[in-house]
Amino acid sequence: MGQFAERIFVVTGANSGVGKSAARSLATRGARVIMVCRSRERGETALDEVRRQTGNDRLQLRVADLAELDQVRQLGGGLAEELDHLDGLVNNAGVVRTKRELTVDGFERTMATNHLAHFLLTALLLDRLEAAGGRVVNVSSQAHRSGKLERAPLEAIMRGDIRYRGLQAYSHSKLANVLFSNELARRGAGAITSNALHPGVLATHIWNQNKTFGSLVAAAFKPLMGSPDVGGRATARLAADARLSSVSGGYFDGERQVEPASDALDRDLARRLWQTSAELTGVAE
Ligand SMILES: NC(=O)c1ccc[n+]([C@@H]2O[C@H](COP(=O)([O-])OP(=O)(O)OC[C@H]3O[C@@H](n4cnc5c(N)ncnc54)[C@H](OP(=O)(O)O)[C@@H]3O)[C@@H](O)[C@H]2O)c1
């Protein structure tokens, strides 16, 4: 454990799949882990499980529905008040929706949850991350390779004002994760690090979020999918492994650093995505 007892990590979507596994991996090392979950009940069950498995009694639960910007503001504001430093922020929570839905803020739900919420949460915690030379880990996906954010104005994509296809919307949001990760790495150079990863193709609840999509995928691919722990370990490694302390702006497939799609390396697109996200979430540039 040693110096890990001083370390604080925040993991979103920590009650299930990759997030729960990453939280467990960080808790095993003795860190204080703040698990952000949308349901108090599912969060408490997961926290009890991780506490039992790791013997770590420094786990905390924060409840927030990340699809609502006000809840993200409350979460980020509360954490910023409570913590004087933050060693790692794992932006992991994610959804795939087969049908177009708008959030209370008028954003397309996949983009709002997977990208805008994490953009805002990171902004609210940035000075606490800087105080620790902290790391941001953005859980993206191979699906970012099918994302196209040049097809329409960025605000139209965020607001769902384009023809909706669930997997395409998911891919757009996962491309946004890598672009955000890279832009954050540039803006935070020297003060924090930021990396993105594809955690693997894993048997988690994400495939069951939509009945039709989930049952089709489950039937075809579930036997071939890896354990959530493969992704959880790779995520925790990026957040905490000493050998990666100065790696920033990278994209990882599991534990291997690889090239992301060329769109993910487009600096102008990353800058415009940052500006649009800042305007839509009320973050000062
Ligand atoms: N599984 C894969 O094969 C795979 C592949 C590539 C990338 N990924 C990425 O891995 C990440 C984790 O997904 P997973 O596979 O571990 O799926 P999962 O088991 O479904 O976990 C997703 C987590 O996100 C949470 N979440 C969803 N919407 C939320 C909201 N509005 N507010 C707060 N939390 C919310 C879920 O909470 P609830 O339990 O309350 O829904 C859950 O804890 C995602 O970003 C996903 O894109 C997964």
Strand order of the largest sheet: 3-2-1-4-5-6-7-8
Quick one: how many beta strands?
8
Poorly predicted segments: none
**Residue share in helices?**
40-55%
Structural Rg: 17 Å
Instruction: Report the sheet-strand fraction.
Output: 5-15%
In sequence order, what are the helices and strands, one letter per element?
EHEHEHEHEHHEHHEEH
Give an overview in words.
The protein is built from nine helices and eight strands. With 285 residues, it is of the alpha/beta class. An eight-stranded mixed beta sheet has the order 3-2-1-4-5-6-7-8, with helices on both faces. Helix 2 (40-54) links the parallel strand 2 and strand 3 (59-63). The N and C termini lie far apart (38 Å). The relative contact order is 0.15. The mean pLDDT is 95. Bound molecules: NADP nicotinamide-adenine-dinucleotide phosphate (NAP). NADP nicotinamide-adenine-dinucleotide phosphate (NAP) binds at residues 13, 15-19, 38-39, 42, 65-67, 92-95, 113, 139, 141, 198-199, 201-202, 204-206, 228.
Quick take:
The protein is 46% helix and 13% strand. By secondary structure, it is α/β, with parallel strands linked by helices.
